Amino acid sequence: MEMIKKGYQIGCGVLISSRSKLYNLKPINSDGAYVESLSSYISRLAQKHNILVGDIVNDVVTPLLNKKYLEDIISNGGDGFFKSSNAINGTGVMAEDFVKVIELLTQRRDLFKSTLLKLEGEISIKGLLRKNKAWCPLCIEKQFKNGIDIYEPLIWSISEYKVCTTHHTPLVDHCSNCNKKMYHLNRKSINGFCSRCSTNLGEESISENASESDLNHSEQIETLVNWLVKFKDVDLEDMFINKSIQQMTDSLFDQKVGRAAKHFTIPESTYRDWYKERRVPNLSSLLKICDSLNIDIESLLNKEVEMKRTLIMNEKKSQESHSLKINSTSVEVLLENVVANQIPLSLTEVAGIIGRDRTSLTKSFPELTEKIKAQKKENISDQKLKRQRDLEQQLVRVIGFLVKCDIYPSIPAVEEIIGENTLRERKVKDFYTKLVSEDITYY
């Protein structure tokens, strides 16, 4: 421990170091959705130095931070700090402080990616992070079998991330042996093991299946984290999430905040505060908006909500009355317009926009509503199929290229070209397996 601390000069809040005093360990998957969390990184760093996490936190990090709030917690003993260690992966002061000091200790400059600091002041912290650790036992088991460093992705720290998108099973938050929950960091934390009874947290199989809604939300969160790590700080404007909500509201609801709030079943006062940038939204509400519009969260944040949706709004503005109660003839015209222009809206979205109940629309216009539902379903299927075909074609080209270069097309080699974790999707993985099981000399 003395070897680690030696060589630092601390004064007036300035830390000077001539070289790295902790290993310059690279965060795992630092440029993708499965980027390692900072709590996992600290645990892995302690293991590489053959010391306890408690030693790094108490004897190295805390003195260098010189933060009274942390010193008070440590001096009181017990698990005070570790109970709140989820904040290390978050958007606040603790995450910022730990990133600064660990970067100084390791001489790295990319540890902010292992937190949600880019969302500081942009999203509500209420309910954002899990209080206790959660993990996918199947992923942990796979890491053990592959003989790689065991690590915990940042996405596992996020409350709304409830399902592993690789195995389609819910995350677990308690040890199968002692049935205890764990903090994100503990004095004796070792990634992949229970910090209370030291049981391996990996499992061969899990029978429980996840809901489609939870699976979709987990995929959205992966998209969000992947989107965040691609940006530099200068690329994100202040209140960028609120501005995305403003743009979406102006485009789809003709600047009518009340109608937008009603459509998304969000209290109007809350939604208006978001629109006016008086408050920031929470993650669950953003997912709710994306669910309603059937878009991914990246499209919302990039302000790429389909402009074709405004066609319905333009039709409404042409009516003599701006009331939400439109007569039956006008409703039929609008429904026909949706079908004729193949606008990919769900029946619920159409009903909300024109101010009618979905059930009454179905009873009054059974043929048109059935066409709208079928059209929406086909649109979703077409999008999934197109993406699947594009990935398959890309796999054929990449594997062929690797073979010509006398390189075996292993998963790491393929993903290095087409992107990390692309082969985590089951159908893509199956297609890859089929390709490499054939005579690869023919590609």
Could you explain the architecture of this structure?
The structure is a single chain. The strands form two sheets. Strands 1-2 form a two-stranded antiparallel ribbon. A two-stranded antiparallel sheet has the order 3-4. It folds into four domains: 1-212, no CATH class; 237-305, 434 Repressor (Amino-terminal Domain) (Orthogonal Bundle), CATH 1.10.260; 308-364, no CATH class; 378-442. The termini are far apart. Helix content is 50%, strand content 2%. The chain has 20 helices and four strands. Helix 10 (257-263) packs across helix 11 (268-275) and helix 17 packs across helix 18 (366-404). The chain is mostly helical. The protein has helices spanning 2-5, 38-48, 53-65, 68-75, 80-83, 93-106, 137-146, 212-229, 240-253, 257-263, 268-275, 283-293, 297-301, 310-317, 328-340, 347-354, 358-364, 366-404, 411-418, 426-437, and strands at residues 9-11, 14-16, 163-164, 169-170.
The number of domains is: 4
What amount of the residues lies in strands? under 5%
The Rg value, from CA coordinates, equals: 25 Å
**Biggest sheet statistics:** 2 strands, antiparallel
Percentage of residues in helical conformation:
40-55%
Secondary-structure content class:
mainly alpha
Element order, helices and strands? HEEHHHHHHEEHHHHHHHHHHHHH
Number of strands: 4
Please count the helical segments. 20
Question: How far apart are the first and last residues' alpha carbons, in Å?
Answer: 54 Å
- Give the oligomer, counting copies of the same chain as homo and different chains as hetero: single chain
Low-confidence stretches: 1-18, 310-326
Average residue pLDDT: 82
Strand order, largest beta sheet: 1-2
Shape: globular
